[in-house]
Amino acid sequence: MTAKKNKPLSDKKQKLLEYLLTYVSEHKQALFEEKIRFRTKYITVVLEDIFQPHNASAVLRTCDCFGVQDIHIIENQNKYEVNPDVALGSSKWLKLMKYNTEKQNTIMAYQTLKKQGYRIVATTPHKNDILLEELSLDQKTALVFGTEMRGLTNWAIDNADAWVKIPMYGFTESFNISVSAAIILHYLTEKLRKSDIAWQLNQTEITDIKLDWVKNTIKRAELLEQKFLKNS
Predict the structure, then answer these.
(1) CATH of the domain at 75
(2) Is residue 115 part of a domain?
């Protein structure tokens, strides 16, 4: 019963995508096809109370570069701001999900991710931590990064499923958050793509993401969509 109900919606989305793609250049369409092959939701990034626009934007740019599609943004005390000069438009290629309606939004984010089958991995030293190269990818993984000054909240650390740290050999105690994200995502996405894990998007996810990309690319996308829906 469920499959029969979902099929018309899936078909309609596919037809809408095909319609909107007629307003996109062949070069851009080819780019979409090339980039979507490397996109993944198997690894996702969670940002808890990031407040510096430079770092917020740099993390988005890093996620786009490594093909990580979904970013979960927790706003407890700080609103997540993006610096367009640093992000270079990367946010329009990503799915940003914000948690800002509760007093403790970290709880809501963790609950949502666990329902989706993610293992919560806090990127912070801990008594039970492991090195980056020891982290297994046998389960969908949500990497949680904390604020620039204080790091992750105690609740975020205590309620994680695992804790990972980057090996360091200097006097400085930690990396900048954008540097940490770049190091961790580079290592894990390369490890993932060289594995036998089914990390690729399914067809429904591909259609949804392409639709978002097309809508963020063409002008008057909403009007074109309304025209299509009216005539379909």
Answers:
(1) 3.40.1280.10
(2) yes
Provide the b/e sequence for 60-87 (b: ≥16 CB within 10 Å). bbbbbebbbbbbbbbbbeeebebeeebb
- Coil, strand or helix at 201: coil
Q: Which amino acid is at 28?
A: K
Token pair of 37 as six digits: 């092959």
Given the DSSP bridges, would you call strands 130-131 and 141-145 parallel, antiparallel or unpaired? unpaired
- Alpha-carbon span 10 to 144, nearest angstrom: 32
Look up the domain containing 84 and give its range. Answer: 41-217
CA atoms of 89 and 61, how far apart (whole Å): 8
Task: Report if residue 131 sits inside a domain.
Answer: yes
CA nearest to 67, candidates 38, 96, 109: 38
- pLDDT, tens only, 81-128: 766 666 667 888 999 999 999 888 999 999 999 999 999 999 987 888
Question: What 3-state class would DSSP assign to 98?
Answer: strand
227: in domain = no
Residue 177 lies in a domain: yes
Residue 129 three-state SS: coil
> In the 3-class helix/strand/coil scheme, how is 53-84 assigned residue by residue?
HHHHHHHHHHHHHCCECEEEEECCCCCCCCCH
Structural domain count, the chain: 1
Nearest to 105 by CA among 75, 136, 135: 75
In angstroms, rounded to a whole number, what is the distance separating the alpha carbons of residues 179 and 59? 8
What is this structure's pTM?
0.89
**How does pLDDT run across 24-44, given as a tens digit for each residue?**
999 999 999 999 999 999 999
